[in-house]
Every structure is written in C-alpha cells, then in structure tokens.
Write a structure and sequence with these properties.
This protein has 6 helices and 8 strands. By secondary structure, it is of the alpha+beta class. Helix 1 packs antiparallel against helix 2 and helix 5 runs antiparallel to helix 6. The longest helix is centred in the first third of the chain and has 29 residues. It is rod-shaped and about 115 Å long.
C-alpha cells in the first residue's frame, strides 16, 4: 500500500498474487477482503478522476470520452457508477456535437460566400456525430449545396427594391428605375422601367432560362433613366 499509493490496480494485483501463492494461509481471507476494498477504491477513484478531468477540461471532448469509457471497460456491469458513466458519455457526445455545429454556424456567418468550406465542415459533422440532433438540417444543407454546385436551369425574377430619396434628381418626382442582370458572363437582360418611384415593384420574370451553378458570377446594375441613364447601384462578385 505504501508503495502503490493511489495505484489501486497494483494493490489488487498484489493481493491476488498472495491468494494464488498462499491459498491455505490464515491471511488468505484478509487478502480477499483487501482485494475487495481496493476494487471499490479503484472504482470510486477512477470515476471521480474522470469527472474532475472533465470539469477542468470542458472542451477536450475526445479525452473526456476516453476516460469515462476506460472506467466502463475496467469495471463493467459491476462498477458502482457504470450507469452514471454511460449517461455522462451520452451527454459528452451531445455537447461535442453542439459545439462543432456552433463552430460551423459561426464560420458560415463569418464567411457566407465560402459554401464549399461550410459543406466540408458539415460532412465532417455527420461523420463525427451521426446521432446529432442537427443531422436532418445538415443533410438538407448538403442536398441543396450539391444541387447548387451542379449546373442547372433556373428562372429569374426581379421582384422589388427600396432606395434612399437622396438618389433622386432635383425637381424630379422620383427616379425611373430598371434592373440589368448578367449571369456567368452572359447578359440576361433588363427589366421594364418603373417610373417615379423610390419603392419600385418590377415583379418581372425574364423569359429565358438561366444556366447557373454555385460560383458563377452574377452582376446586377440598377439604372435610373430619369434625365440620363446612370447606374445608381452595382452588385458585382469580388475581384
């Protein structure tokens, strides 16, 4: 005991070896009692150590799981806290999945245009956390991403807009606005002009199909035809 300290497994081994060597010794029963005492102490010590480690290292999910799984493997159904350990393992897995999902959400918010990187992270989430409560949403995202990443035919509709009054000409009753669109280097066309309005409603669908896939550049120009044709807004992909 003095040499082993908290190494209860070593204490158990010593007691077990004594029993095997001296089964008829008058001290055999005492050795058996010591073995059971060490087994209980090992059980309590290993479970408590796992709990303390988790508390001190809340984001080391894999290491936390390893410690509680080791406790379960070492003590099996006879372990005093095995049922509790299984519950803790389930909670760690759930917390880990929530943590990884939150990181994906933060990345997507910070880099909304880098959907390929988001998709890579979502696939990793599904591989690492198959039981995540976000599985359905993750799979739905990947379906939509894969569709967008493959060229498809689309119909394009320009609905409405809202513009500051500062864009209007002096003595004008309002701008005469239309929208020009280019997709993947191909000019789609221009909407009809809505006259004298800072809140134009075009609700115009271009007659031709548009072939587009994720990553193809889209350029949008809003043109004021009041007095002169001037672009008051340009939306273009980054250079």
């Amino acid at each position: 005991e003095l040499k082993a300290g908290t190494d209860y497994r070593a204490r158990m081994d010593a007691a077990e070896q004594f029993i095997e060597r001296y089964p008829r010794s008058p001290l055999a029963d005492e050795a058996k009692t010591l073995f059971e005492k060490y087994a209980r102490a090992w059980d309590e010590h290993e479970f408590q150590s796992a709990r303390e480690f988790s508390k001190a290292n809340p984001l080391t999910f894999d290491a936390q799981l390893a410690r509680f799984q080791a406790y379960i493997d070492h003590h099996g159904a006879a372990g005093k806290s095995v049922a509790q350990a299984h519950a803790v393992v389930a909670k760690i897995r759930a917390d880990w999945a929530e943590h990884d999902y939150r990181l994906i959400h933060e990345f997507a918010t910070r880099y909304p245009s880098d959907l390929a990187a988001v998709a890579t992270r979502v696939r990793r989430l599904l591989d690492d956390h198959p039981a995540s409560r976000h599985r359905a949403a993750a799979e739905q995202f990947l379906v939509r991403y894969e569709r967008a990443a493959t060229p498809h035919e689309y119909r394009l509709r320009v609905k409405s807009g809202s513009f500051a009054h500062s864009i209007g000409r002096t003595f004008s009753s309002g701008p005469d606005l239309a929208v020009e669109i280019e997709v993947a280097g191909v000019r789609v066309g221009r909407t009809p002009i809505v006259a004298d309005s800072f809140e134009p409603v075009w609700n115009y669908e271009f007659p031709q199909n548009i072939r587009w896939r994720l990553g193809d550049p889209v350029r949008i120009r809003v043109i004021d035809f009041d007095y002169s044709n001037r672009a008051i807004l340009k939306i273009e992909p980054p250079a």
